[in-house]
Amino acid sequence: MHTVSSFARSKPVLFLIIFTVFFSFPIFCLILFPETFVFTLGSSEYLLFHNISEIFSVIVSLSIFGVGWYTYEQNHNKHDLFLAVSFLTIGLLDFMHALSYEGMSPFITPNSPNKSTQFWIVVRTYTALIFLISSRIIQKKSQLSFSKYWILGINIAFSFIIFIWITFFPQFFPDTYRYPEGLTRFKILSEYITVILLVFAFIFYYNKMLETDDLSIIYFLIAFIFSILSSMVFTTYSNVYDSYSMLGHVYKILSFYCIYQGIFVNSVNRPYSKLSRSNESLKAEISEHEQTESKLQGMILVKETLIRELYHRINNTLQVIKGMLVLQGNEYKDLKQIGELIEKTEDRIQAISFVHQLLYSTQNLSKISVREYFQKLSKYLFDSIDKEGKEISIVFNIQDLEILMDTAIPLGLIGNEMISQSLEYSFSKTKKGFIEIHFGIIDDKNYRFEYKDSGDVVLEKENLSDFKNSFGSKLIFMLGESQMKGSINLIEEKGIHWVIDFPMNIYQARV
Q1: According to the model, what pLDDT value does residue 487 have?
Q2: How far is CA 151 from its chain centroid?
Q3: For a designed S-S bond to 209, which of 45, 84, 159, 217 qualifies (C-beta 3.0 to 4.6 A apart)?
Q4: In this structure, what are the phi and psi dihedrals at residue 497, rounded to the nearest 5 degrees?
Q5: How high is the pLDDT of residue 378?
Q6: 448-486 burial by CB neighbour count: b if 16+ within 10 A, else e?
Q7: Contact 485, 506 (CB under 8 A)
Q8: Contact assessment for residue 77 and residue 275, using Cβ atoms and an 8 Å cutoff
Q9: Which of 365, 367, 361 is nearest to 302 (CA)?
Q10: Are 155 and 147 in contact (CB under 8 A)?
């Protein structure tokens, strides 16, 4: 139907007119050339044709029911559900009509043309009425609310009532066929009423198609045309075995097939088409995201390269400053205090420089390893300070943690001051000893940095005040309390023993 749909999209009125004229042609042939085209089959031959056509109609009706019923939970299409459940009743009544046909074994009570035609006229009128009601549902389906089980129950009850009525109480139902006269006025009038109902349904569906540009409705419009043609044919036959009756059944089969196509498109094809379009859209979006990700990766790589280059240049700048201090200090070799000041400043610069060296050489541009940093710093200080043959070892009890550079720099300067204090003052008399550096997590929010040595300095009331007022201790307190927001405890015992607790989340990573 893709060709039909494309033509119908551009010129729907012209398409429907041409379609109607084309499929009306067999009727005109029967009317204009009865000697050639009107004939009567034998009962056995016609019965075979009739059974095949009705069985096909029943199968299509049950297929419509199955598709609409079992896809409702996914698409919630009330229009298709209503038609699907109604076609269950249509299928059951068509089956009763086929079993009641003259020439078939008695369907509970004796079969006759009147009996089968009574079932026929009920199902035809019911079908037209269902189409008319469904045309209103498709107009206002979003405003309707009903239970599919209630609709199913009503339709089954209606089928049962019609079965009991025509099978056991046919005298209370108007005659539709009398032998030898043929069709009764009631039957012919009923067919015309069916045509009128179908015309109204056609108009409502057509308006909905123009309003929504939903081309799946074209299947229902074609089905109505076939049903109208079928009803027109069934107003003219005089013998249930003639070619008029055969043509009417052919139109009916085509009508049911189009209804099945319309519901199948709405309930099955359309969701899969939407899914296919969604998959294509998703693929395009994924491709776009991959391209964007590739660009971002390139930008990140450039950013990392620039940041590493920045760290490298900062480190070089610090080394230049350190070199300038060394050169400047050589001019004051006779002034011991100036020389010591320059040396300590060099060590502090180097403590900062080590942070940038580690940041430049590692993958993480924000954090450095505490253990690696203090091992590097302590080795430098041990090498730069003359220990005069002293055997001093350093023990690291540092958890394998990484800290931000904003925390590492003040912590490194603190460690630098503490190691310098130990090497210069705590081990002034003893030849052997050790230094312990502990670092780790003490709770969910805080780190602990603990430093102690086994030197011979005893911090008591007499010398504790002088020790705290030294530049190195003042720097430790300033960095620990101001920059690291920590609490500092200098323990009074033999040797130097510092304990600093500070929060983990003082700073946030910026790169």
Answers
A1: 92
A2: 34
A3: 217
A4: -140, 110
A5: 83
A6: ebbbbbbbebebeeeeeeebeeeebbebbeebbeebbeb
A7: yes
A8: no
A9: 365
A10: no
The rounded distance, in Å, linking the Cα atoms of 351 and 381 is: 9
CB 450 within 8 A of CB 498: yes
- SS3 per-residue string spanning 399-411: CCCEEEHHHHHHH
Q: Within 13 Å and on the Cβ side, how many CA atoms surround 491? A: 12
* pLDDT on residue 441: 92
As a whole number of angstroms, the distance between CA 49 and CA 52 comes to 5
Residues of the chain falling short of pLDDT 50: 1-4, 142
What angle, 0 to 180 degrees and rounded to 10, lies between the N-to-C axes of helices 243-264 and 43-75?
A: 10
Tokens matching residue 371? 């253990």
Residues in a beta bridge with 498: 451, 490
Strand partners, 102: 104
Separation of alpha carbons 497 and 367, rounded Å: 27
DSSP state of 495: S
Whose tokens are 């015992």? That residue is 493
Rounded to whole angstroms, how far apart are CA atoms 365 and 362?
7
Q: How far apart are CA 7 and CA 15, in angstroms?
A: 7
At 64, list the tokens: 């419509």
Total number of residues shown for the chain: 511
pLDDT value at position 327?
61
pLDDT in the model for residue 2:
45
Nearest by Cα to 237 from 184, 193, 194: 184
Place of tokens 């419009």: 221
User: What per-residue confidence (pLDDT) applies to 320?
Assistant: 60
Strands 391-398 and 432-441: parallel
Angle at the Cα of 218 (from 57 to 86), degrees rounded to 5?
A: 40
Report the candidate in 20, 459, 474, 90 with the shortest Cα–Cα distance to residue 259. Answer: 90
Measured CA to CA, the distance from residue 166 to residue 100 in angstroms comes to 10
Q: Which of 439, 452, 471 is nearest to 375 (CA)?
A: 439
CA 387 to chain centre: 68
